[in-house]
Amino acid sequence: MQGNTRTIGKKSAVIALALSFVLSGIAGGGPLPAKAREESVTKAVSFTDTAGHWAAKDIAAAAKSGLIKGFPDGTFRPEQSVTQEEFLALVERILPAFAGHEPDAYVRNTYLTHAAGRWSEKTYTHLASAGIMPTGTPTDSLNRLEAARVLLAALGHQSEGEKYRGTKSRFFTDLSTDDESKVMTVYPAYKMGIMAGYPDGTFRAEEKISRAQAVVLLNRLARQIEELYPGTVSEDEKKAMTQAVSSFVGKVMDQEKIRRYDDLVAYVKSNKLPVSESFLREHFSFMQYDVYDYIRFPRFNELIYYAKIGTSKYRMTVQYYSGELGGSVDKTFYLSSADGKTFRLIGKDE
């Protein structure tokens, strides 16, 4: 856990710079000079308009750590709303680094048109490969539903929504279970502790996110990343894990072009590949059907989280955009290794 804590700490320094200009109202004005950036991170800050505010402690802690900076007049303006592009820029800086790739024409025309030419265009393009794409325009105020959607994708946990497909349990008085798309976004965000409801039993999906709420949500995101992806995984282990999975998927789907499950099992056995049949069932069961659609596999240059969950067991979650058919998805692979150098692809319960 110490390794994770150090990582989050390094990210917080970067977040500090991001929030310094994104939440201080100069998002389009470029970064601060080097000296000013350093001072904004290290100098203790107090605000004239946060005393007694419900998020005062979070804001004060964030200011003390250099996470945020206020306006020149000494205010923080906690109730001022945050735009979608501002929130995405902040989220991007919390996430692990990933290369990403150029979006296809559909993504560019559907999700990136409004960001073209704006200061946030690179952020939108980068996060699109990870399937992190809000539905509004960059200058729209971020509402609670969009925040939940973005945060779930940022955590690689959008698939959690499947647990609530068809549910009749009603968590909030203002959210009908008939609205399945909202339920599958709001419920997992709530159950995972990313977002909370209000004391009156409502969720208020359309309510705008304030600057104060953005600070709280970013803190929760950082904590959730640390909790959901435990253990220390070295850079060499990450590279070896990624190579093990990506090379197998590429060989099977692109080079050998195997499309039937029995052929896949036979191929693995005849070549004595370090892949268990449980792994094959978890990720290639769609091949058992004569006619099938399948969610495209990732390219493995998208957002990837690594975790060590046992003495020799690892977990790798990829959050990515799988094409128009699949949309934004997360896919989790399990691996085992005795030396951290060679990996066997295994099933979740092995």
TrEMBL record:
<feature type="domain" description="SLH">
    <location>
        <begin position="168"/>
        <end position="232"/>
    </location>
</feature>
<dbReference type="InterPro" id="IPR051465">
    <property type="entry name" value="Cell_Envelope_Struct_Comp"/>
</dbReference>
<protein>
    <submittedName>
        <fullName>S-layer homology domain-containing protein</fullName>
    </submittedName>
</protein>
<feature type="domain" description="SLH">
    <location>
        <begin position="42"/>
        <end position="105"/>
    </location>
</feature>
<dbReference type="Pfam" id="PF00395">
    <property type="entry name" value="SLH"/>
</dbReference>
<dbReference type="InterPro" id="IPR001119">
    <property type="entry name" value="SLH_dom"/>
</dbReference>
